[in-house]
Design goal:
Radius of gyration of chain B: 19 Å
Number of domains of chain A: 1
Largest sheet of chain B: 6 strands, mixed
Largest sheet of chain A: 9 strands, parallel
CATH topology of the largest domain in chain B: Rossmann fold
Low-confidence stretches of chain B: none
Strand content of chain A: 15-25%
Shape of chain B: globular
Number of domains of chain B: 2
Helix content of chain A: 40-55%
Mean pLDDT of chain B: 97
Structural class of chain B: alpha/beta
Number of helices of chain A: 11
Number of strands of chain A: 9
CATH class of chain A: Alpha Beta
CATH superfamily of chain A: Aldolase class I
Oligomer: heterodimer
Number of helices of chain B: 15
Helix content of chain B: 40-55%
Structural class of chain A: alpha/beta
Chain lengths: ~270, ~400
């Protein structure tokens, strides 16, 4: 299953569309439910991202905060997450799974032990929001050694010089933050400007798969379809919140939303 | 064991990644923040060497904040406790009522220099919020203060002050609704607005540059104290410097000029709130608000809940610089309970004219414990870093009165 992330991008490219990547919080709102949600949307996804909830998230907007809060309230722990990943991979062996979280959760568990556990459970990639370049060099190396893709982030504030360094040290996937914001706020920049930033990155190293995230919704997704991949997170978390508040089944509702998102990029 | 470097300011003892002693601090932040904090670091390094800027800072400290704060002996308390001589560095006499005035003023000055028009800060007890609001008004900046809803209600006088000064107080209702959540929310605000907003972190915490600016600003306290000690004693006598620790900004300011002294000569004692005491209860190192530090967490690594009657101390983390001072053995840390702090306030205000806020009441509590065990020749200095009026309601609720 090596390089399954690359493979996911290859398939999407063949179909002439961006890869669709979901972000949900593992354990939202319960362990079982979060697995059911992911399982039900995975047919429309190219890559699944699961958030590791943390109670001091400094880069997340309200929607993901709410999801993390629910997951923590229901007692999710790191070892549960690894078990759930394992179960997911058993259900969908070819679907790449990326875990995303804050470094404190990894640091507390121990870098080596964490990466080892990721490998054992079938995690394909890692995004660590607050472990940025160059502080992430050793961690990224450790990931590579264990065939896990460490996904670097590039922001609108990243300088060209820094961007080049980040891309040079990156693995097969790079995450471009669309706009200066926490997760889930409206796009502050025009689509044109976002695409322009995206093209700068692609020009430096065309072979890297660059995905755009932050502020991707039903409304914005089709305009950004020229990207290698698009991440939808807060919009899904918001749908889970809404479903729970309205006493509806989040599994069906999120399934419907992701289907719609997929249709917009076909 | 980690060692401190002599003749190097404490704030500068980090490596190129911002780590102190290979272990504390760093820059654990989102990629979006990297460039803005790098720009801020460059600006700060330039300004701290810039004579014109230093002159401006000193001008503001003198004319806007009221200049040197008093240093005096507490004769009644000394007599009552019958041990060491007890002295007070009354930082609460500053315009702005707490050490946060230095830090807030410097941040507003830096914001001005950076060309940004917006300034955002977090606050627990409201002392930083109030001073930032004041400084922003003075320098014509738009100010946002993030504060937990629990703190908004328990520190109401300061909230009113902030609003009257024209600042927007943003209530933070997530998590424990206290300082830790206010800092998180303020950082999130910065992540979203770093192109036009200067972030003023309320204590010596956060990514490297933020704690540097903070400790650099509050060090005015020890610069004054050194002079005042020499004036009183003709030399730096054998001392114990007692300071309360929340994030730890006032202690760093109070101790800065004395770091190079042998600890037998100048002992540094930090006092935390009993149930928010990462330094004195052997908490693990954790990453919180952008830096590695001693911090209370649960087994899973989630940041733990804390409790203190004092909003300024109700915080699970501690400055990375205190981690360094602890691990090098330069400072020692202890704690005091709500009850002990209240009892200290009661005794101090009965015997003396000072009215400490709940935060320094914790430091006074340690002073009261320690003084009787020491000799007349020993000198204890307590940083009375905040004025008590903001806690009037809490004191009345707890003690039944607030002294005149």
């Amino acid at each position: 299953m090596k390089n399954s992330i690359n493979n996911a991008f290859r398939i999407a490219k063949k179909e002439n569309r961006p890869a669709l990547i979901s972000y949900t919080v593992c354990g939202d709102n319960t362990k079982e439910r979060s697995l059911q949600i992911l399982n039900s949307i995975s047919k429309d996804l190219d890559i699944a991202e699961w958030g590791i909830p943390h109670n001091c998230p400094t880069a997340d907007g309200k929607d993901i905060q709410n999801s993390s809060y629910r997951a923590l309230q229901n007692g999710i722990r790191l070892n549960d997450i690894f078990k759930l990943v394992k179960r997911f991979k058993k259900l969908k062996p070819s679907k790449p799974m990326i875990l995303m979280g804050y470094y404190q959760m990894i640091f507390n568990y121990g870098d080596k032990k964490f990466i080892q556990k990721c490998k054992e459970s079938g995690v394909d990639g890692l995004i660590v929001v607050d472990l940025s370049f160059p502080d992430n060099k050793n961690f990224a190396k450790l990931c590579k050694k264990n065939s896990i893709c460490f996904v670097q982030l590039i922001a609108p504030t990243t300088t060209l010089k820094r961007m080049k360094e980040i891309i040079k040290s990156s693995h097969e996937m790079i995450y471009m933050i669309s706009t200066i914001s926490t997760t889930g706020s409206a796009l502050k920049y025009s689509i044109k400007r976002i695409i322009k930033n995206y093209n700068v990155i692609k020009k430096i190293k065309p072979s890297k798969n660059v995905v755009i995230g932050f502020g991707i919704t039903e409304k914005t997704i089709s305009n950004l379809r020229s990207a290698d991949g698009l991440v939808v997170g807060s919009a899904i978390c918001r749908e889970i919140t809404r479903s729970l508040e309205d006493g509806q089944n989040p599994v069906t509702n999120v399934g419907r939303l992701v289907r719609k998102l997929k249709n917009k990029i076909l | 064991m980690i060692k401190l470097r002599k003749k190097t300011p404490l704030i500068d003892q980090h490596d190129k990644f911002g780590f102190y002693g290979n272990k504390f601090g760093g820059n654990y932040c989102a990629e979006t923040m990297r460039k803005p904090i790098e720009d801020l670091s460059k600006l700060f390094e330039k300004l701290r060497k810039d004579r014109k800027f230093l002159k401006k800072r000193d001008h503001y400290f003198k004319h806007y904040l009221g200049g040197e704060t008093p240093f005096f002996k507490l004769k009644n308390l000394t007599r009552y406790l019958g041990g060491a001589q007890i002295w007070c560095k009354d930082v609460s006499a500053i315009n702005g009522d707490a050490h946060k005035a230095y830090h807030a003023t410097v941040n507003a000055l830096i914001c001005k220099e950076s060309g940004k028009r917006y300034i955002a800060g977090d606050t627990g007890a409201g002392m930083f919020g109030k001073n930032l609001a004041m400084a922003a008004k003075k320098m014509n900046l738009k100010c946002k203060i993030f504060m937990g809803t629990k703190d908004i209600s328990r520190q109401a006088p300061n909230v009113k002050f902030m609003r009257d000064a024209g600042a927007e107080v943003v209530p933070v209702d997530s998590g424990s609704k206290t300082l830790v959540d206010a800092v998180s929310e303020c950082m999130r605000h910065y992540v979203s607005n770093c192109d036009n907003t200067h972030l003023a972190v309320g204590s010596a915490i956060g990514c490297n540059i933020f704690l540097k600016i903070c400790a650099w600003s509050t060090s005015q306290i020890s610069r004054e104290l050194k002079k005042q000690l020499i004036k009183e004693f003709g030399e730096i006598p054998k001392l114990k410097l007692i300071n309360v620790i929340g994030g730890g900004s006032s202690a760093l300011g109070f101790w800065n000029e004395f770091i190079d002294y042998d600890k037998k000569h100048v002992e540094l004692i930090g006092v935390e709130a009993k149930y928010a005491a990462p330094l004195s209860t052997n908490a693990k190192v954790a990453i919180l608000h952008g830096a590695a530090q001693y911090c209370l967490t649960n087994k899973e690594g989630q940041i733990a809940d804390t409790h203190s009657i004092s909003a300024g101390l109700d915080y699970p983390g501690s400055s990375p610089l205190h981690g360094l001072l602890k691990d090098t053995g330069r400072a020692r840390y202890t704690n005091a309970s709500d009850k002990e702090a209240l009892a200290a306030f009661k005794l101090i205000t009965k015997l003396e004219d000072i009215r400490p806020s709940l935060e320094p009441a914790h430091a006074w509590s340690e002073c009261i414990r320690l003084a009787p065990k020491l000799k007349k020749g020993d000198v204890l200095v307590v940083n009375n870093c905040g004025k008590g009026y903001k806690d009037k309601k809490i004191y009345i609720d707890q003690l039944g009165y607030y002294p005149k």
